[in-house]
Amino acid sequence: MNENDLRVIKTEQHIEQAFLALLQQKPYRAITVQDILDTAAINRSTFYRHYASKEALAEKMVSNFRQVYEKFLTERFSVASQENLLMCLEQFWAFIHAQKQRILAFWQIKTPNIHLYDDMYALIKQNYIEHAKRHGRPGDLEFQGHTYAGIILNNLSYCLQQDHQMSLEDIRSNIQLMMQTVSIQ
């Protein structure tokens, strides 16, 4: 099968859209290949020509998303100026909001090979620690990376699940207010 053939690309996109629609309707484990066939209005042989199983479809889709997400993180932690950082973060935030349904759908898939939420946490933590080491930052970097990843991912989760789009300045301001609230004055 020629993966660059427009018909192949369109068929796979159609199958993926059907799968995403199903993930918004019911849990991953409850979705069957027949559900995907019915939603995509394709036959079984067409599905299996493109994917070995429902798990293979999910793995490919999550892997593709993870690669793009990882690229954004790498860019974020390699930015040299504050101005470029803000631009990078704005692009990242726009990407996250554009992928909202996909992210929320993929977060619900938890298998031995698919665990996007945990992967995102590990990537944030790893990138933070590497960045801190490159810049000679002091302290317990493992703790800092854990805390940073938790704050970022929980904030992301909150904004996506509550359908609450906050600006980067709103996020920064609220984190500062939170830290002031818990500080002993």
Topology:
Layout lengths: L5 H20 L7 H8 L3 H7 L3 H23 L5 H17 L1 H8 L8 H19 L6 H21 L6 H15 L3
List keywords for this structure.
mainly alpha
What can you tell me about this protein's structure?
The mean pLDDT is 92. The radius of gyration is 19 Å and the shape is elongated. It has helices spanning 6-25, 33-40, 44-50, 54-76, 82-98, 100-107, 116-134, 141-161, 168-182. The N and C termini lie far apart (67 Å). The protein is mainly α. It has nine helices and no strands.
Sum this structure up briefly.
This protein is mainly α. The protein is 75% helix and 0% strand.
Strand and helix order: HHHHHHHHH
The counted number of beta strands is 0
* Strand content bin: under 5%
From the spread of the alpha carbons, the general shape counts as: elongated
The amount of helix comes to over 70%
* Assembly of the depicted chains: single chain
What is the arithmetic mean of pLDDT? Answer: 92
